[in-house]
Write a structure and sequence with these properties.
Length: about 220
């Protein structure tokens, strides 16, 4: 397999896989074009590394790392992801998947074949703003993935990046209400927007303060960043 789908490797992280020392494999390409995405080059350009090169890297980290984060971009766009996860697991590493939820079948396959240990699902925006934030119209597919994860009782988290000029407290409350209605029992993680000059939508720095005090308490919330 020579598909150079991986854009980069972060060799060590204490932050991206809860309670595990991990590496991050960053996949090129994504179905979405989120206006606040800071990985413009990763999303728009080709990858640089093949899965075999990534596995060779892991061979050099045996006994040093506990897990691997499959992030991006969007890893579930690649049909060989299940094979890749199997190879990672066979080396003794745990696997975490960061996903936008637009490939429900792949998520199901990974879970049902015990090829993933933890998932972080990005809830980009409430349904009313999903298209304007992500430039993608498939909220219904994301919704199916979310419902599946909740029903399967698989260990996963839901997270949202908050740019206060794009998502106000009332928008986050719509997400909270939706998660509560669906029966989500985990923590809802809010990520603070980090301004760089590499954003896909060339968004500006936030001008409006985010009114955290207006957030609903129907589910537990933790801020990151």
């Amino acid at each position: 397999m020579t598909d150079k789908a991986l854009y980069d490797i972060t060799p060590f992280t204490l932050l991206d896989y809860p309670e595990h020392l991990a590496a991050i494999f960053w996949f090129a390409k994504c179905q979405m074009r989120c206006v606040y995405c800071y990985n413009r080059d990763m999303v728009l350009n080709e990858g640089k590394l093949s899965p075999q090169e990534a596995l060779a890297f892991l061979q050099s980290r045996l006994g040093l790392l506990e897990g691997v984060v499959l992030s991006g971009g969007e890893a579930t766009m690649y049909e060989w992801l299940a094979w890749f996860a199997h190879e990672i697991k066979s080396l003794g590493f745990k696997v975490k998947l960061d996903t936008n939820g637009l490939n429900t079948a792949m998520v199901k396959s990974l879970i049902e074949n015990s090829l993933v240990d933890y998932i972080a699902l990005d809830y980009k925006a409430p349904k009313e703003k999903f298209l304007s934030i992500t430039r993608d119209k498939h909220f219904n597919i994301f919704s199916q993935t979310l419902n599946y994860l909740i029903a399967s009782e698989f260990p996963f988290e839901v997270r949202t990046t908050v740019h206060s000029d794009l998502l106000r407290a009332e928008d986050i409350n719509r997400i909270i209400q939706d998660l509560h209605r669906r029966g989500y029992k985990g923590v809802y993680y809010l990520h603070r927007f980090l301004y760089t000059d590499t954003h896909l939508g060339r968004v500006k720095k936030e001008k409006s303060p985010f009114e955290s005090e207006k957030l609903s308490n129907k589910i537990p919330i933790v801020w990151r960043g």
